[in-house]
């Protein structure tokens, strides 16, 4: 059974409590987190998986609709609001459902069922990607789009198939949130996506035309992991 994680974003503590109580009556519930602002929600999504997001429209001067417009890659969203006039705007933003307060637990349950009935790949996008701060905004990076990461002092440069970005998080902080089966440290300053290797040898790897040396203390771990992947047919071209 999937350990579902739900996030409530509502600046009304009483409304959030009512929703929590309703969710507690639904058997698919596993974990519920409540945030009172968009900033809190972004901080949560930066580090935690989320299968379903319950979002109020007006949040102490902030606009849930504007957030949706700026965040195309996000968990499925159910709107919970006192403002029915925003329904059309929200459906244009591909929300799962639009609930006008107060709503019944049965109505809420139908919305959740609709959300979780979406294709698995759509519901689990969070587990295939990572949120990182870029230019003071959270940006989602799909694991498969990242080629390698480079430590630049306390910052990290993210090299992707589409370009290069910089985040204020250290490379160790980013590494802790990446899948170990796919990403490997090859020296103090470099972390590579093993699926992007095009060639490697004992002391160096190539990602396209980029050559990176393997630190001595990392060579044995690298060799062991590559041998394991080679047995599964996932190895890249081997040079001498």
From TrEMBL:
Enumerate the Gene3D superfamilies for this protein.
Answer: 3.40.50.2300, LytTr DNA-binding domain
Residues the record lists as 4-aspartylphosphate modifications: 56
Say if the entry is tagged with keyword Ion transport. no
Domain HTH LytTR-type positions: 130-197
Transferase in keyword set = no
Name of this chain's protein: Response regulator
Question: What's the short name of a Pfam family annotated to this entry?
Answer: Response_reg
InterPro entries reported in the protein's UniProt record: CheY-like_superfamily, LytTR_DNA-bd_dom, Sig_transdc_resp-reg_receiver, WalR-like
């Amino acid at each position: 059974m999937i350990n579902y994680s739900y996030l409530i974003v509502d600046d009304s503590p009483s409304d959030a409590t009512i929703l929590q109580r309703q969710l507690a009556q639904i058997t698919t519930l596993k974990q519920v987190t409540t945030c009172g602002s968009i900033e809190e929600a972004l901080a949560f999504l930066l580090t935690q998986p989320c299968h379903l997001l319950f979002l109020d429209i007006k949040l102490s001067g902030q606009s849930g609709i504007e957030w949706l417009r700026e965040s195309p890659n996000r968990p499925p969203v159910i709107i919970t609001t006192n403002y029915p006039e925003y329904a059309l705007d929200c459906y244009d933003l591909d929300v799962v459902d639009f609930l006008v307060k107060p709503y019944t637990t049965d109505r809420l349950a139908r919305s959740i069922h609709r959300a979780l009935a979406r294709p698995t790949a759509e519901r689990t996008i969070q587990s295939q990607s990572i949120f990182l701060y870029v230019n003071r905004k959270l940006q989602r990076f799909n694991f498969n789009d990242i080629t390698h990461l480079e430590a630049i002092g306390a910052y990290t440069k993210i090299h992707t198939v589409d370009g290069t970005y910089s985040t204020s998080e250290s490379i160790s902080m980013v590494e802790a949130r990446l899948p170990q089966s796919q990403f490997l440290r090859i020296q103090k300053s470099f972390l590579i996506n093993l699926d992007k290797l095009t060639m490697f040898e004992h002391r160096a790897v190539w990602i396209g035309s980029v050559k990176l040396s393997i630190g001595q203390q990392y060579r044995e771990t690298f060799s062991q992991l590559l041998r394991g992947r080679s047995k599964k047919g996932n190895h890249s071209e081997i040079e001498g």
